[in-house]
Amino acid sequence: MTPAPEEPPDGPSPEGRAGGAGRRAPAVRGRGVVVAVHTSAAALACWSLGRTLWDGLVQPGIALAFGVLIAIGELVGRGPAPAAGYGRAPEEREGAPLAAAGALAYALLGAAAGRPTAHGVPQTVAVVLAAGLVGLVPQVARGRGPALDQLARRVLTVGFAAVCFQPLRASGALGRWVTSGPAHPLFLVGLLALTTLCDAVLAAALARARTGWPYGPLLHDELRALLGLGTAICATGVVISLATAVAGLWALPVFCLPLLLTQFAFRRFAAVRATCRQTIASLARSTEIAGYTPHGHARRVAALSRAVGRELGLNAPDLDVLEYAALMHDIGQLSLLDPVPDGATAPLPPAEQRRIALLGGAVVRQTGAPAEVAVIVERQADPYRDQPVMARIVRTVNAYDDLSGGAAGPGGRLRALERLRLATAHDHEPEVVEALARVLARGCRAG
Q: What is the reported pLDDT for 262?
């Protein structure tokens, strides 16, 4: 689920390359988490496949129907590779909700058309794994490489749900504890909620291991995502399981259709957001084309601001707002008759800085960007103690890029960072400066 984080346009900073032993321990811990998750999933998969091959496939028609459903969900859910850009989320959300709902439904299936099912935990995991591998074929064919993190999560979460349900159903304990009345679907909903919660914890841990970003905000983003598509996945999984128990396999296409339509709606919404981001990025380049700011300045400030915001614990929606504001923070310079040397507005009088910021905010309000973006652009020239945290981030990162000149040499960057630290009494928030230093020390990986 977690693509490797992108390097910024200038590559890792010299501070990051010189970090040496200081960065080895977190990197080793991150690799350890990934290896542990993948090893656990591989062990469960091997055991499940071995037991299924040894015992034989039970009720192959039902297994084939759910396997086809999961494979189709994987195939239609994995779209083309996300376009490179500034705002790509650090963690890839559930890309195949139909496959996830079908896998969970098979794990919680206790009957089909009124007849009890006999598949257990090993067969459940084996069917989900086989269908998931089929879904990886188009990704490999497109050269994207297999999404091993997502497959490992799918195996572990489905295995968890099956272990919690199938032994209880097979032993009859579930019938004694939970009757066939309203308590049964409530039990399934609670079990799926616990399963998705475990999946969110696992996803945040993998994202933390891959990126080094703070775990708390990553977990917050994952839990926040559960309120949307995660709820639909859980509800569809429960409905498929209960409907199949009564109506048989005909329930699969009938009750999967709403989730499939929801998935297409999410895709349309994502396409609209991508278009908005591209429009803002193109507008931000107008100052470079007109010669008011150096080439790549807005892009560097946006990438580094997002990384600093992630370091400070901002959630995903706030990071998007921060990125938009960083891209367009210099748009007000188009009002100047003569460009400022190197686009650096810091030497200008405070009144002129505020005028440029206010004009920039007025332009942003005409673009259709969120109102918070215009506020950040307008207030970037205010004293930092009066600014919201995102305006402080843009102010500090912009000053860093101006002072370093986007240079790759260690001297310019170290001197720029030192000047920012000396200016924390009046111009820059100390916490933001230190977060910037930590990001640079890790190699300046953008979020």
A: 78
In the prediction, which pLDDT does 25 show? 46
- Point out the residues of the chain with pLDDT beneath 50: 1-26, 80-92, 444-447
Q: Which residues of 239-277 are buried (b: 16+ CB within 10 A; e: fewer)?
A: bbbbbbbeebbebbeebbeebbebbeebeeeeeeeeebb
**pLDDT recorded at residue 128:** 93
- The number of angstroms, rounded, from the C-alpha of 392 to the middle of its chain's C-alpha atoms is 24
Distance separating alpha carbons of residues 164 and 382, to the nearest angstrom: 56
Which residues have C-beta within 8 Å of that of residue 235, sequence separation ≥ 6?
A: 189
Q: Give me the pLDDT at residue 32, please.
A: 85
How far is the C-alpha of 162 from the C-alpha of 255, rounded, in Å?
21
Dist. CA 395–CA 392, nearest whole Å: 5
Segment (H or E) for 88: none
Pairing assessment for the beta strands 111-112 and 115-116 based on DSSP bridges: antiparallel
pLDDT at residue 159, as a whole number:
94
